[in-house]
Amino acid sequence: MARVKFLCDADRCIECNACVTACKNEHEVPWGINRRRVVTINDGKPGERSVSMACMHCTDAPCAAVCPVSCFYTTADGVVLHSKDLCIGCGYCFYACPFGAPQYPKVGNFGSRGKMDKCTYCAGGPEADSTPAEYAKYGANRLAEGKLPICAEMCSTKSLLAGDGAIIAEIYKERVMKRGYGSGMWGWKTAYSDSPTG
Amino acid sequence: MPGSISILRFAAFKSLFAAFALLFVLTHPAAAQISFKPTAEAVQEDKLLNALKEGDKISGRVSIPDGNAANLIQPAGRDWRDFQRSKLPWIGGIAILGMLVLLAIFLMVRGRIRVQQGFSGRTILRFNSFERFVHWLTASCFIVLALSGLNVSFGRTLILPLFGPDAFAAMSAWAKLAHNYLAFPFMLGVLIMFLIWIKNNIPGKLDLEWIKQGGGLLSNGKHPPARRFNAGQKGIFWIVIIGGALMSVSGWFLLFPYLPGNVTALQFWTVIHAIIAMLFIAAMLAHIYIGSIGMEGAFDAMGSGEVDVNWAREHHALWVEEQQGKANAPADRVRAVPAE
C-alpha cells in the first residue's frame, strides 16, 4: 500500500483557513481544539508565506515513542492513529511532537487534560470503520470510504496536497520546476528524515 | 456600431492605464524591475531550519485564538523524546538500582547496626505526634507519587507486557490522578517539615566532625556526638526540602501547562522533574533502609515516637543531655555515660 503524507505548497497557500474550517466541520472537532491550523511566517513582511499544518504522520513518530501507555499505532498506509480509550492525557506526545499536533480538551480539574485529540488523516481510530462510536471519538473515516482528507480535497488553490507521498512529492517538484521557485516541503525533513522515501 | 465603440473605449482605457502605469513606474522605481521574482525574499524552510538555535522553533502568526498553535515546527521535540526514551531510563536505572545494590552491599558488610548497650527499657520522646503525622503524611504521599511517576517512565516497558494494554492504561490513568492530587498534601508536608525542623538542621561544626568520622557507620561502636539531628539526617532533611521544592515547582508547571511559558519551557521542566525524581527516590531508599532494617531501634522514632534511651545516647548524645537537662532530671542522668 502507498505511504500517505501531507504536503503544503506554501507558495500557493492564501491563508483562507478553509482547510481548518472544513476539518472542524467534517469531524465536529470540539471547541478549543484545532486539528489543523494555518501559520503565517514573516506576516506582513515581504516574502511572507502561510503554511497549513496538522499532524504530519511521521515516520518513527515521536508521539508514539514517548507515550507512557503506548496508545499510538501506525496503519498500513503510514497514518499515525491513537486510541482514546488507552490515552491517559499526560501530555507527553505534545512535548515530543515537532508540529504541535496533539491537542487536549480542557476538561475537569487541574492537570486533567482529557483525552488527546489530533488529526487522523480522516482515518478514524481503532473502532470499526465508519461506526458512530468511531465518529464520536475521532470523527469521520473518509479513508475507509476511499476518499482523501477533507482539508486537502477542498483546498481552493491546491496548495495542500494529500495522498501517496511519492506522488504528491512529484507534483510539488514539477510545480517548482515549472515556476522556478518553491519555499520547501514544510515539515518533511523533520517528519520523514529518517526515511525519505518511506 | 456597438463593437467599434467598445473597442474605442477599450483603447481609451488602455492609454489611460498605460499613463497610470508610467506614472507608477516613475514614482516607484523599484517596480520598474523587468523580472519581478515573487520568491526573491520568500521564507525558505531549509534556511529557517538551519538558522534555528538549540531548542528554538519556527513560529509565525495564526488567526485562531490559540496562540500556541503559532509554533509551526519545533525540532527540539526530538531531543526531548531522546531524553525520555534513551537517557532517562539510564539515569533512573543507575540511580535506583545502584542505590539498592549499595544498600545490599552495606547490609552484607556492616550488618544491622545494633544498639551496643542493648535496650535499656526506658524511652525518651523523639518525635511528637504532630511531627510523626507530618512525616507519614509526606512519606505516604511520596511513595504513591514515586510509584506512579516511575510507572510513567518504566511502566510501558516493565508492566504493560504483564497487564495488557487495557488494564495497564486504566491503572495508569488512576496513577496519574493520584499523582496529580497527592502532590498537594506532599507539598504541604514538605513545607511543614521545613518549618518545624529547620531550627535543628542548620549545619554546624559538629557536622564536620561527624562527616570526618564517616558518621560511625563503618566503625563498630564509634558514634560521633550529635544534637537532635546528625549530619546524615541533616543531609536527608535538605535533600527533602530542596528536592521537594524543585519537584513542587516543576510539578506545578506540569499541572498547569503554559504557566512557565510555551512548549520549550514545559520540556525543560519535565526534564528537571524527571531527573530530580530519580535522584530523590534513590536518596529516600537509603533513608528508608537506615530507618528500618538498617539500624536497630531507629524505627521507633517515627513509629511510637519513643526511642530507647540507650539508642538515643549512642546516636544523639548531646540531644539526650539537652532533653534531660530541660526535664530537670536527676544529676546522675544529666551526666549520663556518653556513647563514646
TrEMBL record, chain A:
<feature type="domain" description="4Fe-4S ferredoxin-type">
    <location>
        <begin position="78"/>
        <end position="107"/>
    </location>
</feature>
<keyword id="KW-0004">4Fe-4S</keyword>
<dbReference type="Pfam" id="PF13247">
    <property type="entry name" value="Fer4_11"/>
</dbReference>
<feature type="domain" description="4Fe-4S ferredoxin-type">
    <location>
        <begin position="4"/>
        <end position="34"/>
    </location>
</feature>
<protein>
    <submittedName>
        <fullName>Formate dehydrogenase</fullName>
    </submittedName>
</protein>
<dbReference type="GO" id="GO:0046872">
    <property type="term" value="F:metal ion binding"/>
</dbReference>
<keyword id="KW-0411">Iron-sulfur</keyword>
<dbReference type="GO" id="GO:0051539">
    <property type="term" value="F:4 iron, 4 sulfur cluster binding"/>
</dbReference>
<dbReference type="InterPro" id="IPR017900">
    <property type="entry name" value="4Fe4S_Fe_S_CS"/>
</dbReference>
<keyword id="KW-0479">Metal-binding</keyword>
<dbReference type="InterPro" id="IPR017896">
    <property type="entry name" value="4Fe4S_Fe-S-bd"/>
</dbReference>
<dbReference type="InterPro" id="IPR050954">
    <property type="entry name" value="ET_IronSulfur_Cluster-Binding"/>
</dbReference>
<keyword id="KW-0408">Iron</keyword>
Automatic annotation (TrEMBL), chain B:
<keyword id="KW-0813">Transport</keyword>
<feature type="transmembrane region" description="Helical">
    <location>
        <begin position="268"/>
        <end position="290"/>
    </location>
</feature>
<dbReference type="InterPro" id="IPR006471">
    <property type="entry name" value="Formate_DH_gsu"/>
</dbReference>
<dbReference type="GO" id="GO:0008863">
    <property type="term" value="F:formate dehydrogenase (NAD+) activity"/>
</dbReference>
<keyword id="KW-0408">Iron</keyword>
<keyword id="KW-0479">Metal-binding</keyword>
<dbReference type="GO" id="GO:0036397">
    <property type="term" value="F:formate dehydrogenase (quinone) activity"/>
</dbReference>
<dbReference type="GO" id="GO:0015944">
    <property type="term" value="P:formate oxidation"/>
</dbReference>
<dbReference type="GO" id="GO:0046872">
    <property type="term" value="F:metal ion binding"/>
</dbReference>
<keyword id="KW-0349">Heme</keyword>
<dbReference type="GO" id="GO:0009326">
    <property type="term" value="C:formate dehydrogenase complex"/>
</dbReference>
<comment type="similarity">
    <text>Belongs to the formate dehydrogenase gamma subunit family.</text>
</comment>
<keyword id="KW-0249">Electron transport</keyword>
<feature type="domain" description="Cytochrome b561 bacterial/Ni-hydrogenase">
    <location>
        <begin position="126"/>
        <end position="302"/>
    </location>
</feature>
<dbReference type="InterPro" id="IPR051817">
    <property type="entry name" value="FDH_cytochrome_b556_subunit"/>
</dbReference>
<dbReference type="InterPro" id="IPR016174">
    <property type="entry name" value="Di-haem_cyt_TM"/>
</dbReference>
<dbReference type="Pfam" id="PF01292">
    <property type="entry name" value="Ni_hydr_CYTB"/>
</dbReference>
<dbReference type="InterPro" id="IPR011577">
    <property type="entry name" value="Cyt_b561_bac/Ni-Hgenase"/>
</dbReference>
<keyword id="KW-1133">Transmembrane helix</keyword>
<dbReference type="GO" id="GO:0005886">
    <property type="term" value="C:plasma membrane"/>
</dbReference>
<keyword id="KW-0812">Transmembrane</keyword>
<dbReference type="GO" id="GO:0022904">
    <property type="term" value="P:respiratory electron transport chain"/>
</dbReference>
